[in-house]
Specification:
Rhomboid_protease_S54, two-stranded antiparallel sheet, Rhomboid-like fold, Rhomboid-like_sf, 10 helices, 280 residues, 2 strands, 2 domains, mainly alpha
């Protein structure tokens, strides 16, 4: 889909063929999931973890083997959990007596009241889907981009990216769409992942022409076909791209505090836009 030129700065120092975005918290070298050892704060490379064990024998010696896939690389557990959660919720929607209660609890907006008084709906709606095709398309796209991003960013950054992207999609719906129209689906969050992948790939020097074509086709499809919340797509991709831009500009270990502050500021800005949408 895209190509990234060879560069030792963008690839694991022990496995030159494995692209990664995660740095050892001790020495700053790029490390792939197989070379990441969980430390008290963040992750360390194999050499730094070995040094830690010499200095403090109680340091965590690594992740369980069942969290690694057949290739030996760590499985994208967060992505798998999100997919499983969406599938389970979708199946629960068809159980007698559960359908209405589940949709009532998860819908982004309620037709009778407009902007919801329960703010969690802006995120719970991301785990609901309107049809099997809707679910399958979203989960496939999530698997493709989510797996790659989780391995590059690490679990914490990836979770923040996914949730903020979904939140950004809901905020865009509140600002640009009819607030009385219920909205469900992970499309906003997934478009955020696509936007983030584009930013990170460009930062690494990759060719993103094919990705741009894919995004353009999907955005146009959302505008043309009725019943699709294109607002969520636009809001999600903007939010995801902004968060990814923060990640690539604050990659250095010494900038971790700044990175957290900037990502928190993006979240606060989205909350502010929600308030604006509620009072306008």
């Amino acid at each position: 889909m895209t190509t990234v030129p060879d560069s030792s700065n963008n690839y694991c120092y022990r496995h030159p063929g494995r692209q990664s975005f995660v740095l050892c918290q001790r020495c700053g070298r790029t490390i792939c999931p197989e070379c990441q050892v969980q430390a008290a704060v963040g992750v360390h490379c194999v050499e730094c973890a070995r040094q830690d064990r010499r200095e403090a024998p109680r340091v965590n010696r690594g992740r369980p083997a069942f969290l690694r896939n057949l290739t030996g690389r760590e499985a994208p557990v967060v992505t798998y959990v999100i997919i499983a959660l969406c599938v389970v919720v979708f199946l629960l929607q068809y159980l007698p007596g559960v359908t209405s209660a589940l949709q009532f609890a998860g819908l982004y907006v309620m037709p009778s009241t407009g902007i919801p008084v329960e703010p969690w709906r802006m995120l719970t709606s991301v785990f609901l889907h309107g049809s099997i095709l809707h679910l399958l398309f979203n989960m496939y796209t999530l698997f493709v981009f989510g797996s790659a991003l989780e391995r590059m960013l690490g679990k914490g950054r990836y979770i923040a990216l996914y949730l903020i992207s979904g939140f950004g999609g809901s905020v865009a719906v509140a600002l640009l769409a009819d607030p009385r129209q219920p909205v469900v689906g992970a499309s906003g969050a997934i478009f955020g992942l696509i936007g983030a992948y584009f930013i990170i790939n460009r930062h690494l020097g990759g060719n993103s022409v094919q990705l741009l074509v894919l995004v353009a086709i999907n955005l146009v499809y959302g505008f043309v076909v009725p019943g699709i919340a294109w607002q969520a797509h636009v809001g999600g991709i903007i939010a995801g791209a902004v968060v990814a831009l923060i990640y690539v500009r604050t990659r250095a270990i010494r900038q971790k505090g700044l990175q957290i502050a900037l990502v928190s500021a993006v979240s606060a800005a989205l909350v502010g836009l929600t308030v604006v949408a509620a009072v306008v």
